[in-house]
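Ticket 4471: requesting a sanity check on a complex prediction with zinc ion. Repro inputs:
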Amino acid sequence: MLRWAGAALIVAGAMTARGDDFAYQLKPTAVADGVYALIGKTENFTRDNGGNIVNTGFIVGQDGVIVIDSGPSKAYGTQQRAAIAGVTPQKVTQVYLTHAHPDHFLGNQAYADVPIAATVATNAALRQSGDALLDNLYRLVGGAMSGTQVQFGSADAAPGSVRIAGRALRLIPAAGHTAGDLMVFDEATKTLFTGDLVFFQRALTTPNADIPRWLATLDAIDKLDFKVMVPGHGPVLRDHAGVMQTRDYLQWLSGALKDAANRGLDMPEVMRLPIPERFRTLAVLQTEYSRSIAHLYPAYELETLPAARP
Ligand SMILES: [Zn+2]
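Returned structure tokens:
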């Protein structure tokens, strides 16, 4: 705890006067009957966007509201809850976290009085790495993070069908983007919240990715009977284009890294490889491609080494 508190103090000394009053100007968009998304920017984390580079959402039931992801900061979570109150008088009765990345769970403090559920793996990752992720976001985002601390989920999400606030939901655990992704499917409207298993028009983040598992999950998503998809980043979809684009990018990335390792390229050479034309319009492409190489390439290089002799 001391470590992040120290980082927060250092950042606080250098930060702008914005502090807690960073205005996210969250505007819920109705994507289906009683289902709303809060669409973030497709940018890197900056002080100007306050970390709002993420999609979150909520579902209004008969006697309660279900929130999907709490956003990147305490201020975001608080303003998300206020935005929900602007749509419905129903109280928030459940929060689900799609995974343990900081733009998705650091608003939890705004829901201290509400059950917050995530997969077993996500809850474990929050306990293990939550403070380090928080440190990093303070460093990148600064003032808007003021007062933000890691608040753990209060329960493990049981997979399968549940009825909450009179709304039938299906909780679908998966993996690939992280070890413990969770999707939330609203049965009445066939709306699927995918978390970061699907990105659209924005390059993928891969710090905890397992590409073969991610590809298998995308195949499973294709079989789901969804009509509306809220991806983790990028515009809302009513077709499979986000799944196709995410799959295409992962297949290209893993193929390119494998090929580069076989050719014996070093990391700076891989960073200079041309990116196919069809991906060049993706937001934050160069940054995420470089990060992906840094995360993923060493494993591909290891695979090319001759097996050690006994
Ligand atoms: Zn993520």
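Notes from triage: The longest helix spans residues 120-141. Leaving this open until the requester confirms.
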